[in-house]
Amino acid sequence: MAGLRASLQLLPFRIMPKILVDLLSYTGTKGGMETYARELYRAIAAANSEFEFVGLASKEGFALDQSWFPGTVIDSGISGENRFAWAFGELFMVTRWAKKLSADLIHSPATLGTMSRAVPSVVTMHDMLYWSHPNLMSTGLYTGPVKWMERRAAQAATRILTISDVSRDEIVKFLRVSPDRLDVVPLSGTASPSVDRSRFTSSAQGMLLATGNRRPHKNWEGIIRALPLVPEGIRPRVVITGSHGDDPLRAVVTELGLEKWIDLKGWVTAEDLENLYSTATAMVMPSFCDGFCLPALEAMMAGVPVMLSDIPVYREVSADAALYFTPTDSASIAAAISTAVTNPTFMAELVERGYTQAAKYSWKKTAAGTLDTFRAALAARTGS
Q: How far is CA 173 from CA 55, 131, 161, 178, in A?
């Protein structure tokens, strides 16, 4: 990439190429993709690259803390919570803003992006779940439009970033994108210095922590329905965070009479999450499908062993540092739960493996790979 950096210095438009970062979907309520954008650009700021950055924020995002962003943030006036306004903004307005600001490149970090080729663009496509598992998407009527928008964004993009080999292969399969235009740059986790695992005490009556939104592919119901198969003498309490508003899991908990065993905490603060990490027996992710596994990395960094669905992308991220189970099989989930609370020696081994595995990832590496993709996209524009 040294040659790319040198060639950029000879480009006619400016010494510091300007990159417009599409933050229309950033509202403070979207979870993993927002973590990606925030931690990526925090690391890019530390990298002190040759680029100038301007963020195009949703009206909700503009009201939030912007100290993580390495440049000016402007208010688009577009609501990231209104799907129609947001979709229109992604398709048509981002490029207009890029032209208005004389940007040399657009980066859309949340899977969808512009349908125009008027300004070179890089889009980060996290997964292909609307294509691979449309039956598990929470808004069926939205599946067709999302697939159309993803295809248009992929067609318009100069280069495409993705976060795992599994997602890369599915982008090639479903969107018919040439692998030559794709760069795999994995995410990382963020270790919290406030997590104090000395508070954890191994006991048969442990606590499993699950965190994430309530989209159907996350399969939280699978954990709840498996719990009665674990004998009460060793059955752990399960804490599930991440819901906004009325929790759809509450009806399942009531149906099974598990109010004593399941704690639905909804959305929690960073401090609350650190306290849960400090006392959890394990972090559980029972998803049917995914594009990565950021919660697993963050748990491993905190010294919390992880229990994961045995799906290819989780194997890619966590290797031998997880206790795996079959997400469609309640008996398999229950067996994994039993192991987690009755085999502290094995779980301690997973903690050590987790530290080793998580050390392979860093936001510094994510930033470096992303900046290389920006350089390649700009070089493609000039044919150098």
A: 32, 10, 15, 10
| DSSP one-letter code for 229 | G
Note the pLDDT of residue 383.
61
Handedness of CA 266, 267, 272, 274 (dihedral sign): positive
Share of the chain above pLDDT 90, in %: 81
CATH label of the domain that carries residue 101: 3.40.50.2000
Query: What are the contacts of 154-157 at 24+ separation with CB within 8 A?
Result: 154/123, 154/125, 155/115, 156/113, 156/114, 156/115, 156/116, 156/117, 156/121, 157/113, 157/121, 157/122, 157/123, 157/181
Q: Which residue has the tokens 């403070």?
A: 28
The span from the CA of 219 to the CA of 359, in Å, is 28
Give how many domains the chain has, as a whole number. 2
- Residue 115 and residue 155: Cα distance in Å, rounded? 8
Same domain, 242 and 303: yes
Contact 167, 126 (CB under 8 A): yes
Classify 12 in phi/psi space as left (phi over 0), alpha (psi -120 to 50) or beta.
alpha
Same domain, 372 and 342: no
For residue 104, give its domain range: 2-188+362-382
Question: Based on the domain organization, do 50 and 132 belong to the same domain?
Answer: yes
Mean pLDDT over the full length of the chain: 92
The CA distances from residue 275 to 210, 266, 282, in Å, are 13, 15, 13
pLDDT less than 50: residues of the chain: 1-13
